[in-house]
């Protein structure tokens, strides 16, 4: 069932799930035909000539949505809730101090899907209230937001039982919980020291030091295998419950149903590929429907090889941070990692996928261009595993591109053909089929010339 429908008048098609289907200005959702049509008059992000108009409108819209949420927030109830969670120690919220520029302060700690407010206790302990940007087009419909919230809370409770430096979670309630007086879904978290890592701006020495520390984190996570693929959705009395994937593309209905959990990677990938193909044919994926369809049929063709390569890794799953591009880490002035943040969207993946290097280490331009050479810091990480006697984990780095390219293409969905060209080249390359994008596309079109799904999307010539 589509997550949302196109909001153009008299259109009954599903809206596209990716960036091309949502307007960041008016918060409306559109099918592949109606974003850029007479029915939608917002400045277009792809209009290069009038780009300033788009950004101007975007900033105004984002500020207005944030102000709207701050208006729904009962800050006195938030302070009282935090205080009650710390045996009555009084606290204050600087963003709501008399005369404070509340929206400006909140904006400084605003990401794509959440914003944070500092809570300062009288004994100088600082907590963070993590609040969802629930009215942003970037976040999915309400019941899916609730599912993601539960998954993030459960994942953080699980992490608290490990040595991983995730913030402690003290309290969390959904917006419609009758005991929630705050007005919005909230999490109260420990504020850990350090500043957000700028990986690309870090000197070589700092990057090396961070790569070495990553080994320790992954070795710790590797101690906790799960029997199912999916996401952690509950954690009570030291026991985790695994549910469907907390992944935007894998939700099957707006009420929070998602794919999984699965007891084998084979079952998981089969279901994921079938689901993605259905999203393409029903119009929830686009543009590049034909190209993405060919891609997922190619992935389907390669699944037996993947399953064979997984071998014994097919039935154990490990926690995988979804957004590990570097700004999920806090570091001190000496490049020590002080915290790992933002566990929203975390999933449980087979070992070679979970422990291939995080994307912060990839040479991203090379990755998109289809080149698969490892970056210097990936070599450092592999060497560190070896030094610690973990040749098995060093091997996950060395063979990393194979799993990363599989995972990247299976889970995501490409919206720009210039990206697809390099990514496909890299993908077919790791499967030992050196071929340029155009040749690959032609081969797939020929193979699938009688395919029903492709017929739905309409014939194209290469
Ligand atoms: Zn709009
Ligand atoms: Zn439409």
UniProtKB/TrEMBL annotation:
InterPro entries: AGP_Transferase, Aminoglycoside_PTrfase, AN1-like_Znf, Kinase-like_dom_sf. Pfam families: APH (PF01636). It comes from the Eukaryota. Residues 150-348 form the Aminoglycoside phosphotransferase domain. This is Aminoglycoside phosphotransferase domain-containing protein. It comes from Ascobolus immersus RN42.
């Amino acid at each position: 069932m589509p997550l949302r429908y196109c909001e153009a008048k008299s259109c009954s098609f599903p809206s596209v799930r990716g960036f091309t289907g949502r307007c960041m200005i008016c918060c409306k959702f559109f099918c592949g035909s109606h974003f850029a049509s007479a029915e939608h008059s917002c400045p277009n992000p792809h209009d290069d000539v009038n780009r300033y108009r788009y950004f101007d409108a975007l900033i105004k819209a984002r500020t207005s949505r944030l102000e709207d949420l701050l208006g729904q927030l009962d800050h006195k109830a938030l302070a009282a809730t935090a205080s009650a969670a710390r045996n009555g120690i009084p606290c204050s919220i600087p963003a709501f101090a008399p005369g404070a520029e509340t929206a400006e302060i909140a904006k400084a700690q605003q990401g794509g899907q959440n914003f944070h407010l500092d809570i300062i206790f009288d004994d100088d302990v600082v907590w963070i209230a993590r609040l969802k940007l629930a009215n942003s087009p970037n976040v999915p419909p309400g019941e899916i937001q609730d599912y993601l919230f539960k998954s993030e809370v459960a994942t953080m409770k699980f992490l608290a039982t490990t040595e991983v430096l995730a913030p402690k979670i003290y309290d969390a309630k959904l917006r419609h919980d009758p005991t929630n007086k705050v007005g919005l879904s909230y999490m109260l978290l420990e504020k850990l020291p350090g500043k957000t890592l700028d990986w690309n701006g870090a000197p070589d020495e700092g990057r090396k030091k961070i790569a070495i520390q990553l080994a320790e984190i992954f070795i710790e996570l590797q101690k906790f295998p799960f029997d199912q693929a999916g996401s952690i959705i509950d954690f009570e009395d030291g026991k985790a419950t695994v549910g469907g994937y907390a992944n935007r593309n894998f939700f099957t209905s707006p009420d929070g149903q998602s794919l999984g959990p699965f007891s084998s990677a084979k079952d998981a990938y089969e279901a994921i590929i079938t689901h993605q193909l259905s999203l393409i044919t029903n119009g929830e994926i686009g543009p590049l429907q034909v190209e993405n369809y060919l891609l997922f049929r190619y992935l389907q063709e390669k699944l037996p090889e993947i399953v064979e390569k997984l071998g014994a890794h097919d039935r154990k799953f490990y926690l995988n941070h979804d957004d590990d591009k570097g700004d999920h880490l806090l570091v001190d002035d000496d490049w020590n990692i002080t915290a790992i943040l933002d566990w929203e969207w975390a999933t449980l993946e087979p070992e070679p996928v979970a422990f291939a290097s995080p994307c912060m280490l990839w040479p991203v331009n090379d990755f998109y261009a289809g080149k698969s050479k490892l970056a210097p810091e990936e070599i450092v990480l592999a060497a560190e595993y070896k030094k610690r006697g973990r040749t098995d984990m060093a091997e996950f780095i060395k063979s990393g591109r194979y799993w990363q390219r599989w995972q990247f293409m299976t889970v995501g969905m490409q919206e720009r053909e210039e990206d697809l060209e390099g990514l496909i080249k890299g993908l077919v390359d790791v499967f030992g089929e050196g071929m340029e994008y155009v040749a690959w596309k032609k081969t797939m079109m020929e193979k699938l010339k009688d395919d029903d799904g492709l017929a739905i999307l309409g014939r194209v010539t290469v």
